[in-house]
Structures
1.
Amino acid sequence: MATPQSPFSFLDDLFERVAAGPQPPAWLVLEAQQRIVLFLNHVLMQEAQAMQRLMRQKGRVASVQWRAYSMSLVITPAGLFNLAQEGALPDLRLEVTETSPFALAQTALRGDKPSIRIEGDVQLAAEINWLVDHVRWDVEEDLARAIGDAPAHTVVQVAGRGAQALRQFVGTTRGAAAGAAASPQPAPVAPASNATGGFPAAPGASAASPAGSERADA
Protein backbone atom coordinates (compact mmCIF):
# COMPACT_ATOMS: atom_id res chain seq x y z
CA MET A 1 0.00 0.00 0.00
CA ALA A 2 1.31 3.45 -0.86
CA THR A 3 2.38 5.61 2.07
CA PRO A 4 -0.08 8.50 2.54
CA GLN A 5 1.39 11.91 1.79
CA SER A 6 0.98 15.09 3.75
CA PRO A 7 -1.71 17.41 2.35
CA PHE A 8 1.01 20.07 2.26
CA SER A 9 3.47 17.98 0.24
CA PHE A 10 2.38 19.46 -3.08
CA LEU A 11 3.02 22.93 -1.67
CA ASP A 12 6.52 21.84 -0.64
CA ASP A 13 7.08 20.63 -4.21
CA LEU A 14 5.83 23.96 -5.54
CA PHE A 15 8.21 25.85 -3.26
CA GLU A 16 11.10 23.66 -4.43
CA ARG A 17 10.36 24.51 -8.06
CA VAL A 18 10.13 28.23 -7.29
CA ALA A 19 13.38 28.15 -5.29
CA ALA A 20 15.16 26.37 -8.14
CA GLY A 21 14.08 29.05 -10.60
CA PRO A 22 15.64 32.47 -11.27
CA GLN A 23 16.86 34.14 -8.09
CA PRO A 24 15.55 37.60 -7.10
CA PRO A 25 17.78 40.60 -7.85
CA ALA A 26 20.16 41.83 -5.14
CA TRP A 27 18.22 45.07 -4.61
CA LEU A 28 15.04 43.14 -3.85
CA VAL A 29 16.83 40.88 -1.35
CA LEU A 30 18.31 43.95 0.37
CA GLU A 31 14.90 45.63 0.52
CA ALA A 32 13.33 42.54 2.09
CA GLN A 33 16.12 42.31 4.67
CA GLN A 34 15.71 45.97 5.60
CA ARG A 35 11.96 45.42 6.08
CA ILE A 36 12.72 42.49 8.39
CA VAL A 37 15.14 44.64 10.41
CA LEU A 38 12.54 47.41 10.75
CA PHE A 39 9.98 44.90 12.00
CA LEU A 40 12.39 43.32 14.50
CA ASN A 41 13.33 46.74 15.90
CA HIS A 42 9.68 47.72 16.11
CA VAL A 43 9.00 44.66 18.26
CA LEU A 44 12.14 45.17 20.39
CA MET A 45 11.22 48.78 21.15
CA GLN A 46 8.08 47.51 22.89
CA GLU A 47 10.28 45.63 25.40
CA ALA A 48 12.81 47.81 27.26
CA GLN A 49 14.48 44.85 28.98
CA ALA A 50 15.23 43.26 25.61
CA MET A 51 17.01 46.40 24.42
CA GLN A 52 19.02 46.60 27.65
CA ARG A 53 20.18 43.02 27.21
CA LEU A 54 21.24 43.66 23.62
CA MET A 55 23.15 46.81 24.62
CA ARG A 56 25.60 44.52 26.44
CA GLN A 57 26.27 42.76 23.11
CA LYS A 58 26.76 45.88 20.96
CA GLY A 59 28.93 45.37 17.92
CA ARG A 60 28.38 41.60 17.88
CA VAL A 61 27.21 40.01 14.63
CA ALA A 62 24.68 37.18 14.39
CA SER A 63 24.15 35.30 11.13
CA VAL A 64 20.86 33.53 10.44
CA GLN A 65 20.58 30.98 7.64
CA TRP A 66 17.72 28.91 6.20
CA ARG A 67 18.37 26.84 3.11
CA ALA A 68 20.21 29.12 0.67
CA TYR A 69 18.95 32.32 2.33
CA SER A 70 21.04 34.12 4.95
CA MET A 71 21.13 37.44 6.75
CA SER A 72 23.74 38.93 9.08
CA LEU A 73 22.66 41.37 11.81
CA VAL A 74 24.84 43.60 13.95
CA ILE A 75 23.69 44.83 17.37
CA THR A 76 23.73 48.62 17.67
CA PRO A 77 24.68 50.63 20.82
CA ALA A 78 20.93 51.37 21.25
CA GLY A 79 20.17 47.66 21.69
CA LEU A 80 18.58 47.25 18.26
CA PHE A 81 19.53 45.42 15.07
CA ASN A 82 21.01 46.65 11.83
CA LEU A 83 22.25 44.87 8.72
CA ALA A 84 25.90 43.92 9.12
CA GLN A 85 28.44 45.03 6.55
CA GLU A 86 29.03 42.59 3.73
CA GLY A 87 31.80 40.15 4.62
CA ALA A 88 31.54 40.74 8.40
CA LEU A 89 32.53 37.64 10.36
CA PRO A 90 29.65 36.47 12.57
CA ASP A 91 30.12 35.90 16.29
CA LEU A 92 27.11 33.59 16.27
CA ARG A 93 25.70 31.36 13.54
CA LEU A 94 22.09 30.18 13.63
CA GLU A 95 20.96 27.68 10.99
CA VAL A 96 17.35 26.52 10.76
CA THR A 97 17.69 22.84 9.89
CA GLU A 98 14.06 22.23 8.85
CA THR A 99 13.95 22.80 5.09
CA SER A 100 10.18 22.64 4.53
CA PRO A 101 8.46 26.04 4.87
CA PHE A 102 5.15 24.34 5.65
CA ALA A 103 6.68 22.14 8.34
CA LEU A 104 8.01 25.35 9.89
CA ALA A 105 4.51 26.84 9.72
CA GLN A 106 3.08 23.75 11.44
CA THR A 107 5.75 24.05 14.15
CA ALA A 108 4.80 27.68 14.72
CA LEU A 109 1.08 26.81 14.88
CA ARG A 110 1.81 24.23 17.58
CA GLY A 111 3.72 26.86 19.54
CA ASP A 112 6.99 24.93 19.25
CA LYS A 113 10.46 26.16 18.31
CA PRO A 114 12.06 25.04 15.05
CA SER A 115 15.18 22.92 15.14
CA ILE A 116 18.23 25.22 14.99
CA ARG A 117 21.96 24.46 14.79
CA ILE A 118 23.95 27.00 16.82
CA GLU A 119 27.66 27.77 16.64
CA GLY A 120 29.65 30.59 18.21
CA ASP A 121 29.52 32.89 21.23
CA VAL A 122 27.65 31.28 24.13
CA GLN A 123 26.66 34.53 25.87
CA LEU A 124 25.26 36.04 22.68
CA ALA A 125 23.35 32.80 22.06
CA ALA A 126 21.87 33.03 25.57
CA GLU A 127 20.67 36.61 24.95
CA ILE A 128 19.10 35.68 21.59
CA ASN A 129 17.39 32.71 23.25
CA TRP A 130 15.99 35.04 25.93
CA LEU A 131 14.55 37.27 23.21
CA VAL A 132 12.86 34.31 21.54
CA ASP A 133 11.33 33.18 24.83
CA HIS A 134 10.15 36.55 26.18
CA VAL A 135 9.63 39.11 23.41
CA ARG A 136 6.22 39.02 21.73
CA TRP A 137 4.68 41.23 19.09
CA ASP A 138 1.65 43.06 20.49
CA VAL A 139 -0.48 42.82 17.36
CA GLU A 140 -3.58 44.24 19.03
CA GLU A 141 -1.80 47.38 20.18
CA ASP A 142 -0.44 48.08 16.70
CA LEU A 143 -3.83 47.51 15.09
CA ALA A 144 -5.53 49.74 17.66
CA ARG A 145 -3.41 52.68 16.53
CA ALA A 146 -4.71 52.23 13.00
CA ILE A 147 -8.34 51.11 13.38
CA GLY A 148 -9.27 51.68 17.04
CA ASP A 149 -9.42 49.51 20.17
CA ALA A 150 -12.69 47.64 19.59
CA PRO A 151 -12.08 46.63 15.95
CA ALA A 152 -8.51 45.64 16.80
CA HIS A 153 -9.71 43.42 19.63
CA THR A 154 -12.23 41.76 17.30
CA VAL A 155 -9.60 41.13 14.62
CA VAL A 156 -7.21 39.55 17.13
CA GLN A 157 -9.95 37.32 18.52
CA VAL A 158 -10.92 36.12 15.04
CA ALA A 159 -7.26 35.51 14.16
CA GLY A 160 -6.82 33.55 17.40
CA ARG A 161 -9.78 31.31 16.57
CA GLY A 162 -8.40 30.79 13.08
CA ALA A 163 -4.98 29.83 14.45
CA GLN A 164 -6.61 27.40 16.89
CA ALA A 165 -8.60 25.81 14.07
CA LEU A 166 -5.42 25.45 12.02
CA ARG A 167 -3.61 23.81 14.95
CA GLN A 168 -6.45 21.33 15.33
CA PHE A 169 -6.44 20.63 11.58
CA VAL A 170 -2.68 20.03 11.58
CA GLY A 171 -2.93 17.70 14.58
CA THR A 172 -5.85 15.75 13.11
CA THR A 173 -4.20 15.43 9.71
CA ARG A 174 -0.90 14.25 11.15
CA GLY A 175 -2.70 11.73 13.38
CA ALA A 176 -4.80 10.37 10.52
CA ALA A 177 -1.76 10.02 8.26
CA ALA A 178 0.20 8.22 10.99
CA GLY A 179 -2.73 5.88 11.70
CA ALA A 180 -3.19 5.04 8.04
CA ALA A 181 0.50 4.27 7.67
CA ALA A 182 0.54 2.02 10.75
CA SER A 183 -2.68 0.06 10.06
CA PRO A 184 -2.45 -2.48 7.21
CA GLN A 185 -5.52 -2.65 5.01
CA PRO A 186 -7.24 -6.09 4.84
CA ALA A 187 -7.15 -7.84 1.50
CA PRO A 188 -10.48 -7.80 -0.37
CA VAL A 189 -12.46 -11.05 -0.02
CA ALA A 190 -14.39 -12.37 -3.01
CA PRO A 191 -18.05 -13.27 -2.32
CA ALA A 192 -18.55 -16.99 -1.74
CA SER A 193 -20.87 -18.93 -4.06
CA ASN A 194 -23.60 -21.32 -2.90
CA ALA A 195 -24.14 -24.92 -3.95
CA THR A 196 -25.94 -23.90 -7.13
CA GLY A 197 -23.06 -21.77 -8.37
CA GLY A 198 -24.79 -18.45 -7.64
CA PHE A 199 -24.37 -15.82 -4.93
CA PRO A 200 -25.10 -16.63 -1.26
CA ALA A 201 -28.77 -17.14 -0.49
CA ALA A 202 -30.67 -14.55 1.44
CA PRO A 203 -31.18 -15.22 5.17
CA GLY A 204 -33.93 -17.82 5.71
CA ALA A 205 -33.67 -19.26 2.18
CA SER A 206 -32.44 -22.79 1.47
CA ALA A 207 -29.20 -22.71 -0.46
CA ALA A 208 -29.51 -26.42 -1.31
CA SER A 209 -32.87 -26.11 -3.09
CA PRO A 210 -32.44 -25.47 -6.82
CA ALA A 211 -34.25 -22.54 -8.27
CA GLY A 212 -37.76 -23.42 -9.46
CA SER A 213 -38.11 -26.52 -7.16
CA GLU A 214 -41.54 -27.13 -5.60
CA ARG A 215 -42.15 -26.48 -1.92
CA ALA A 216 -42.63 -29.49 0.32
CA ASP A 217 -46.29 -28.58 1.04
CA ALA A 218 -47.17 -27.94 -2.61
2.
Amino acid sequence: MKANRWMKAGSLVVAKAAGTAAALSLVLGVGTAYAYWSTTGIGSGSAANSAMQTVTVDAFIAGDTPATTLVPGGSAEVIVRATNPNAFAVQVYSFTSNGAATADASHPSCTTTGVTFNAPAAPLAPTVSIPANTSILITLPGAASMSGASQSSCQGAVFHLPVTMAVRK
Protein backbone atom coordinates (compact mmCIF):
# COMPACT_ATOMS: atom_id res chain seq x y z
CA MET A 1 0.00 0.00 0.00
CA LYS A 2 2.76 2.36 0.82
CA ALA A 3 4.30 1.72 -2.57
CA ASN A 4 1.04 2.69 -4.27
CA ARG A 5 0.74 5.81 -2.16
CA TRP A 6 4.31 6.77 -2.99
CA MET A 7 3.65 6.18 -6.68
CA LYS A 8 0.52 8.31 -6.49
CA ALA A 9 2.44 11.00 -4.63
CA GLY A 10 5.26 10.75 -7.18
CA SER A 11 2.79 11.02 -10.02
CA LEU A 12 1.25 14.05 -8.35
CA VAL A 13 4.68 15.66 -8.00
CA VAL A 14 5.44 14.95 -11.66
CA ALA A 15 2.05 16.32 -12.68
CA LYS A 16 2.57 19.47 -10.58
CA ALA A 17 6.05 19.90 -12.04
CA ALA A 18 4.73 19.49 -15.58
CA GLY A 19 1.93 21.98 -14.88
CA THR A 20 4.37 24.46 -13.36
CA ALA A 21 6.74 24.03 -16.34
CA ALA A 22 3.87 24.56 -18.78
CA ALA A 23 2.67 27.65 -16.93
CA LEU A 24 6.20 29.01 -16.69
CA SER A 25 6.77 28.37 -20.44
CA LEU A 26 3.53 30.14 -21.22
CA VAL A 27 4.44 33.14 -19.05
CA LEU A 28 7.94 33.33 -20.53
CA GLY A 29 6.54 32.94 -24.05
CA VAL A 30 4.04 35.74 -23.50
CA GLY A 31 6.75 37.85 -21.91
CA THR A 32 9.00 37.29 -24.90
CA ALA A 33 6.20 38.10 -27.33
CA TYR A 34 5.32 41.21 -25.35
CA ALA A 35 8.96 42.28 -25.34
CA TYR A 36 9.18 41.66 -29.07
CA TRP A 37 6.16 43.83 -29.84
CA SER A 38 6.79 46.55 -27.31
CA THR A 39 10.54 46.98 -27.59
CA THR A 40 11.91 50.29 -28.77
CA GLY A 41 15.44 50.99 -29.78
CA ILE A 42 17.82 53.75 -30.57
CA GLY A 43 20.28 53.75 -33.40
CA SER A 44 21.77 55.83 -36.12
CA GLY A 45 22.07 55.65 -39.87
CA SER A 46 23.32 57.69 -42.72
CA ALA A 47 22.71 58.18 -46.42
CA ALA A 48 24.48 60.11 -49.10
CA ASN A 49 22.77 62.18 -51.75
CA SER A 50 24.69 62.71 -54.93
CA ALA A 51 24.07 65.68 -57.14
CA MET A 52 21.95 65.09 -60.20
CA GLN A 53 23.76 65.77 -63.44
CA THR A 54 21.94 67.83 -66.06
CA VAL A 55 19.60 65.85 -68.27
CA THR A 56 19.84 67.37 -71.75
CA VAL A 57 17.29 67.90 -74.49
CA ASP A 58 18.31 68.12 -78.13
CA ALA A 59 16.39 68.53 -81.34
CA PHE A 60 15.97 65.39 -83.33
CA ILE A 61 18.96 64.38 -85.38
CA ALA A 62 19.50 62.51 -88.65
CA GLY A 63 17.50 59.32 -88.53
CA ASP A 64 14.88 60.76 -86.14
CA THR A 65 11.93 61.64 -88.36
CA PRO A 66 8.55 63.00 -87.30
CA ALA A 67 5.42 61.23 -88.50
CA THR A 68 3.58 64.52 -89.09
CA THR A 69 4.60 67.73 -90.85
CA LEU A 70 3.72 71.28 -89.96
CA VAL A 71 1.47 73.28 -92.30
CA PRO A 72 -0.11 76.74 -91.90
CA GLY A 73 -3.19 76.47 -89.68
CA GLY A 74 -2.20 73.03 -88.45
CA SER A 75 -0.24 71.28 -85.75
CA ALA A 76 2.41 68.57 -85.71
CA GLU A 77 4.35 66.45 -83.30
CA VAL A 78 7.57 67.61 -81.71
CA ILE A 79 10.37 65.11 -81.26
CA VAL A 80 13.15 65.66 -78.75
CA ARG A 81 16.12 63.51 -77.82
CA ALA A 82 16.64 63.41 -74.05
CA THR A 83 19.92 62.19 -72.57
CA ASN A 84 20.26 61.08 -68.96
CA PRO A 85 23.94 60.94 -67.86
CA ASN A 86 23.03 59.89 -64.29
CA ALA A 87 23.54 56.47 -62.73
CA PHE A 88 19.80 56.30 -61.99
CA ALA A 89 16.59 56.64 -63.99
CA VAL A 90 14.72 59.94 -64.09
CA GLN A 91 11.08 60.68 -64.87
CA VAL A 92 10.16 63.46 -67.28
CA TYR A 93 7.78 65.83 -65.51
CA SER A 94 7.13 68.64 -67.99
CA PHE A 95 8.14 70.67 -71.03
CA THR A 96 7.90 74.45 -71.35
CA SER A 97 8.68 76.89 -74.14
CA ASN A 98 12.00 78.65 -73.77
CA GLY A 99 12.03 81.15 -76.65
CA ALA A 100 10.80 81.86 -80.16
CA ALA A 101 10.79 79.31 -82.96
CA THR A 102 13.38 79.80 -85.68
CA ALA A 103 13.74 78.26 -89.13
CA ASP A 104 16.77 76.23 -90.17
CA ALA A 105 19.77 77.89 -91.84
CA SER A 106 18.64 76.89 -95.35
CA HIS A 107 15.56 79.15 -94.98
CA PRO A 108 17.08 82.57 -94.04
CA SER A 109 14.13 84.60 -95.39
CA CYS A 110 11.68 82.79 -93.07
CA THR A 111 11.59 85.49 -90.40
CA THR A 112 7.91 85.30 -89.47
CA THR A 113 7.50 81.62 -88.73
CA GLY A 114 4.10 81.69 -87.04
CA VAL A 115 5.27 78.56 -85.17
CA THR A 116 4.55 78.13 -81.47
CA PHE A 117 5.20 75.39 -78.94
CA ASN A 118 2.12 74.01 -77.18
CA ALA A 119 3.47 72.55 -73.95
CA PRO A 120 1.74 69.36 -72.80
CA ALA A 121 0.11 69.44 -69.36
CA ALA A 122 2.31 68.65 -66.38
CA PRO A 123 2.88 66.06 -65.12
CA LEU A 124 3.50 64.45 -68.48
CA ALA A 125 1.03 61.66 -69.22
CA PRO A 126 1.67 58.95 -69.95
CA THR A 127 4.76 59.04 -67.78
CA VAL A 128 8.12 58.84 -69.50
CA SER A 129 11.19 57.48 -67.73
CA ILE A 130 14.71 57.85 -69.04
CA PRO A 131 16.89 54.93 -67.89
CA ALA A 132 20.32 55.55 -66.39
CA ASN A 133 23.06 56.57 -68.85
CA THR A 134 20.67 56.48 -71.78
CA SER A 135 19.35 58.67 -74.58
CA ILE A 136 15.74 58.29 -75.77
CA LEU A 137 13.37 59.95 -78.22
CA ILE A 138 10.26 61.59 -76.79
CA THR A 139 7.37 62.39 -79.11
CA LEU A 140 4.98 65.17 -78.08
CA PRO A 141 1.88 64.86 -80.29
CA GLY A 142 0.47 68.18 -81.54
CA ALA A 143 3.01 70.22 -79.57
CA ALA A 144 3.87 72.53 -82.50
CA SER A 145 1.36 74.69 -84.33
CA MET A 146 1.71 77.08 -87.25
CA SER A 147 -0.53 80.09 -87.82
CA GLY A 148 -1.66 81.36 -91.19
CA ALA A 149 0.66 84.35 -90.68
CA SER A 150 3.80 82.34 -91.50
CA GLN A 151 5.64 83.45 -94.62
CA SER A 152 5.73 81.44 -97.84
CA SER A 153 9.52 81.32 -97.51
CA CYS A 154 9.04 79.03 -94.48
CA GLN A 155 7.77 76.21 -96.70
CA GLY A 156 9.88 73.06 -96.16
CA ALA A 157 11.78 74.54 -93.21
CA VAL A 158 12.73 72.62 -90.12
CA PHE A 159 11.93 74.72 -87.07
CA HIS A 160 13.95 74.89 -83.91
CA LEU A 161 11.76 75.20 -80.82
CA PRO A 162 13.72 75.99 -77.68
CA VAL A 163 12.19 74.03 -74.81
CA THR A 164 13.04 73.28 -71.22
CA MET A 165 12.41 69.81 -69.83
CA ALA A 166 11.89 69.24 -66.13
CA VAL A 167 12.79 65.82 -64.71
CA ARG A 168 12.52 64.20 -61.30
CA LYS A 169 14.41 61.41 -59.68
